[in-house]
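Example 9 (inverse folding). The structure is encoded as follows.
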């Protein structure tokens, strides 16, 4: 008996056409554009860290800029949750409300993080990034994500929160 996951039909092959879904819910092979865009999103943080190192006089202002940038990304990740809610059906057992609530929290947390003392704001955003990733990980079975999505989210969360911690330490 053969494993259904080993099927080579075009509709179930792991390297199907871009955007074509397989039965496991993974979007097939994709271009490197999401990876390129995701990792290039770290360039502003690299520039901020370099600026803090080369221009320590402006370190506090650059830390605020880092907080603002991470907050914008965090709010964007919340927006992704809102969009993912569109995939849910009435049979999802009320997960729509939970995901919608989670989707608006990053923007609210970002506003708070920008008005409280910078060290606490950075901590709040860093914890928020990790909490949202944990939410996505725990609920990964309820939605169909592209195969690249969660690995990219993990890597970017590590790098972005680490960059924010480094910016805080340089301030």
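The amino acid assigned to each position is listed next.
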């Amino acid at each position: 008996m053969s494993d259904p996951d080993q099927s080579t039909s075009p509709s179930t092959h792991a390297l199907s056409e871009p955007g074509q879904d397989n039965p496991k819910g993974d979007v097939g092979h994709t271009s490197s554009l999401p990876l390129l865009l995701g990792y290039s999103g770290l360039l502003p943080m690299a520039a901020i860290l370099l600026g803090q190192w080369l221009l320590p006089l402006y370190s506090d202002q650059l830390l605020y800029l880092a907080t603002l940038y991470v907050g914008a990304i965090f709010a964007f990740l919340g927006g992704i949750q809102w969009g993912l809610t569109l995939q849910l059906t009435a049979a999802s057992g009320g997960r729509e409300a939970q995901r919608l609530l989670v989707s608006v929290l990053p923007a609210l947390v970002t506003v708070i993080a920008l008005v409280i003392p910078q060290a606490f704001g950075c901590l709040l955003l860093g914890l928020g990034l990790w909490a949202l990733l944990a939410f996505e990980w725990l609920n990964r079975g309820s939605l169909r994500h592209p195969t690249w999505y969660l690995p990219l989210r993990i890597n970017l969360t590590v790098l972005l929160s680490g960059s924010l911690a480094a910016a805080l330490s340089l301030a």
